[in-house]
Design goal:
376 residues; alpha+beta; FAD/NAD(P)-binding domain; 2 domains; seven-stranded mixed sheet; three-stranded antiparallel sheet; globular
Length: 376
């Protein structure tokens, strides 16, 4: 489950997707932090926090967002599943990619949007390791069915927290439950048996967690990875550029990864529609997006010990802060601070122009610069 504010929300508005995103928005009302014995350690009310963003906030499952975006591509875009890229060759006026089925594709520009473990980045920029900043945590996630546990949780996201470990369990909109786990791990190396590591690490976090651990899959359906950021001096080489976590992973410690990815893609598309060469466009894209990415990455590193507290006193203080956030009028007081930190990559004038066209009978999805007919 992800929070969706800032750049992502603004891009979704430009694309005319807010009604679809409202449909997948979570029905969960509260995030409740508890100790392993079930005693309270603070809570966050979703609606009250959304007020601090002027209501411009969604919370939903990442795959639901992907399905909404996929539905916007239309028949003009060819999608081939189950393939990857095995080789990339620079040619005089573009790039040729060899796919894993032996076929080739020629393009003016190849955009790698394939995540923190990007295959395209490996082929063009070299091995992953020098580009990864490990933040000292491992994380895992899976979805499961347990009607009795779901009824017990109700419409809330329950997080069981103890120093250096945290296990979250929450209902999804399709009647299932999801588990999210994170713990401090000095060694970035992933375990040979992630499921066994999960059970051993979290088995003493109380009855709720033990019940969820009983559903932990051993193979497919289990996500397990290190918590890390990607830091690169440049995101473009020749006729290949990167977008999203492939070049700007901010990590779950910072949040807004999906939102920043949509913002970065918007900026890249806008610059490609402008004047000048593709090289000029990708250079401007990096210049516009990089400062925001660096700010979010720094923020993630600063807040890591509060997202997953490393001591009992931090757990106590965090709970007090969350409870204080429920005081009447506090969301309004927080609004200027949150607005300053959310930092959208969409210029305010672009949203204003789109809203004006929409109010005049035009479509928000058609807003933005004209398409370049000379660039496939």
């Amino acid at each position: 489950m992800i929070d969706f504010v800032g750049s992502g929300y603004d891009v979704a508005e430009l694309m005319g997707l807010l009604p679809q995103l409202a449909e997948i928005h979570t029905k969960n009302a509260v995030v409740r932090y508890v100790a392993p014995d079930g005693s309270g350690r603070g809570r966050i009310d979703y609606d009250r926090m959304a007020q601090a963003f002027d209501g411009r906030a969604f919370t939903f499952m990442r795959p639901d967002l992907e399905r909404v975006l996929l539905g916007q591509l239309g028949e003009a875009v060819t999608i081939r599943y189950g393939l990857t890229i095995d080789a990339i060759e620079e040619v005089e006026d573009g790039v040729v990619a060899t796919l894993s089925d032996g076929s080739t594709e020629a393009a003016d520009l190849l955009v790698g949007a394939d995540g923190i473990h990007s295959r395209i980045r490996d082929l063009v920029f070299g091995p992953e390791q020098p580009l990864v900043r490990y933040l000292g945590y491992h994380t895992a996630s899976y979805v499961f069915d347990d009607d009795a546990l779901r009824a017990k949780l109700g419409q809330q996201f329950t997080l069981v927290a103890t120093p250096d470990r945290q296990a979250g369990i929450y209902p999804t909109n399709d009647g299932r439950l999801a588990a999210w786990l994170i713990h401090r791990a000095p060694d970035p190396t992933l375990p040979a048996d992630p499921a066994a590591t999960i059970r051993a690490t979290y088995q003493d976090l109380g009855d709720l967690v033990v019940r969820a651990l009983a559903h932990c899959p051993s193979d497919r359906g289990l996500y397990y990875d290190q918590v890390a950021q990607i830091e690169m001096d440049g995101w473009t080489r020749g006729h290949v550029t990167l977008v999203g976590d492939a070049c700007q992973a901010v990590s779950l410690m910072a949040g807004q990864g999906a939102s920043m990815a949509l913002g970065g893609a918007y900026v890249l598309a806008e610059e490609l529609r402008g004047d000048g060469s593709i090289a000029d466009a990708t250079r401007r894209y990096e210049q516009r997006v990089r400062p925001a990415v660096r700010d979010k990455q720094r923020a993630g590193r600063r807040t890591a010990r509060w997202l997953v507290p490393d001591s009992q006193w931090r757990l106590t203080v965090r709970g007090l802060i969350f409870d204080a956030a429920r005081l009447p009028g506090l969301p309004k007081l927080m609004r200027p601070v949150l607005k300053a930190t959310r930092g959208s990559l969409v210029p305010p004038q672009a949203l204003a122009d789109a809203r004006l066209r929409h109010s005049s009978g035009g479509s928000l999805a058609a807003s933005g610069s004209r398409a370049r007919s000379d660039r496939p």
